[in-house]
Amino acid sequence: MTGAARDKFIENSPEIQGRLRREIKRTGVRAIQFYDLAPHIPEHFKKTHLLRWVSGEIKNIRKVDLDFVLDYYASLGDRKMSITKEKWIFLQKEIARTGIKSTGYILDHPDKPKGLSA
User: Fold this and answer.
1) pLDDT per residue as tens digits for the range 40-93
2) Residue 47, Cβ neighbours under 10 Å: how many?
3) Do the beta carbons of residue 59 and residue 14 sit within 8 Å?
4) In Å, how far from its chain's centre is CA 87?
5) How far is residue 106's CA from residue 117's CA, in Å, rounded to a whole number?
6) CB within 8 A of 68, min separation 6: which ones?
7) Where exactly are the structural domains of the chain?
8) d(Cα 34, Cα 73) in Å, to the nearest integer?
9) Residue partners of 24: CB distance under 8 A and separation at least 6
């Protein structure tokens, strides 16, 4: 990629801000968490960039950075999943029986993904 293509900027429009908000809502990965979770963050990309894009504080965005962020969000699944009342009751009984909540088990697991938090 040439320097000119890499440095192409686009205007941070309400449409871009809305798309980013929808991805944040869909995945549950907030703007401030993105930096800790996404792999291979560009060196110039600061922890607050995405937050400032969503708020509209940053008026112009490097296209390559926006593509990177949208590609990462596209790689993530939806945050919500359906659970039946019966499964919920079963889970509550297992928590009572074992004393272990899912977050404790997952967060203490040696193979947990980098940056995973409750």
Assistant:
1) 898 899 989 999 999 999 999 999 999 999 999 999 888 766 678 888 888 888
2) 13
3) no
4) 27
5) 9
6) 38, 42, 45
7) 3-75, 82-118
8) 9
9) 30, 31, 54, 73
Which amino acid appears at position 74 of this protein? A
84: left (phi over 0), alpha (psi -120 to 50) or beta: beta
The answer to whether the CB of 65 falls within 8 A of the CB of 112 is: no
The runs of H, that is alpha helices, within the chain are 3-6, 14-27, 31-37, 49-55, 63-75, 85-98, 102-108
Torsion angles phi and psi, residue 58, rounded to 5 = -90, 125
Q: Say how far apart CA 42 and CA 95 lie, in whole Å.
A: 41
| Structure confidence at residue 64 (pLDDT) | 93
Write down the pTM of the prediction: 0.64
